[in-house]
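Subject: NADH-ubiquinone oxidoreductase chain 3

B.,
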Amino acid sequence: MVISTMAIIITFVISTVVMIIAFLVSKKTITDREKNTPFECGFDPKGSARLPFSLRFFLIALIFLIFDVEITLLLPLASILKMVNVFSWLFTGLFFILILLLGLYHEWNQGALDWAE
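Prediction pasted inline below.
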């Protein structure tokens, strides 16, 4: 009990000292506008809130998220290959990829992937 309490206290002290040193050594200034802006958000957060938002940027970000989640859903297929028969595994994987390719073709056909206007 005493050892775990001492370990917690030592860990807290060391982490606090490291955070204080990092705060003192860093050259971050409050007036540094570029460091305080969000990265790749698509608009300037310091400007007017009534400026129109780029719908193209939103569509590309949404398509990226869809295909990012699709990778997460496809990765477990490799680990369950030994648990199920090959035909059902192959059918499931190909059906899922076919649905995604049809969606990608639809987005391409609608012009959502054309960046230049």
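Helices lie at 2-25, 33-36, 55-79, 86-110.

T.
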